[in-house]
Amino acid sequence: MKKLFILSMVVGVMGLTACDPKQEDTYTNDQPSVTAEQLRANSSVIVEQENGKNVNYVYVTSSVSTPLQWTNGVTTSVNPTSEFLMLVTGEQTITVTAMNPDGSKVSVDYPVNIEVLSDNHPVDPHWGILCGAGSKTWTWDDSKGNVWGNCGFLTGADGNIGIWWGVPPADVKDQVEGYSYGFDDSGDATMTFSLAGTSIVKSSGGSGTFSFDFSDAALLDNAGVKGVDADKSNLWAVGLLKTTGDGVLFPVQINTGTIVTQHYINYIDEDEMALTYASDGTGGWGEATYWFFKAKE
Known about the structure:
With 297 residues, this protein is mainly beta. 6% of the residues lie in helices and 40% in strands. It has helices at residues 36-41, 126-131, 172-178, and strands at 2-6, 43-50, 53-62, 68-71, 76-77, 81-85, 90-99, 105-114, 135-140, 148-152, 162-167, 190-194, 199-202, 207-213, 220-221, 235-237, 239-243, 262-268, 272-277, 287-295. An 8-stranded antiparallel barrel has the order 9-12-13-14-17-18-19-20. The chain has a 4-stranded antiparallel sheet with strand order 1-2-3-6. A hairpin with a 3-residue loop joins strand 18 (262-268) and strand 19. It is elongated, with a radius of gyration of 23 Å.
């Protein structure tokens, strides 16, 4: 049985008429600004429940008259009343931000504890694989020996690729210097994937954002067939990882120095991730670059 668990009730009305937040021309500078206390008093967050447990669907509403934005860290809404699909279990945060006529902003955080991912609200499990319960740290997979180098394109499945040459984590430093890359991502360097802002933050100081695609359209088999027609029993890539900013650890294509912002995901589970990249037009056994990562314990 579905129930709604109310985290914060709307306890008052500010005496202002609520408007569509997108109609910014209806707001004037002589309107009073909203304080954080007023925003909290006039907003609510409700978590859906099934069989007495909080599930991954949240309802939000606010009656303040200023333009506002709701976010769960991944998706945003500028509607006063909205709904959010939560992507992982555990402690999460819903944030509402009011944008005052004087240009100031005030925000209120609502912690929510998601206990169950409901079949009624399906979620791609790769959010949890990449980000854990909200953030997760990855590092070079030193169990592989070499973690970055070149390999034959379209030469294996499940991350078992035809490696030609590579370097262990410590020797990535030489590649950083050789390619004049701006961040020392060698050795014990880490990258943390977070739901908040879909961000990647590297121990070397680099940062960016990420998105992924595990739909059938992103598949690539070892015969070079892409999309829905790919042979799912013989896949080179099970998905795509796209980044902005400084990307993953040492995101440099071998022999060209190109900064890679879209990787094939050759293999991924809770503990390991194998990525590759090849220039457009590369055929079977042409040169690709590989990266091997593991979840940091």
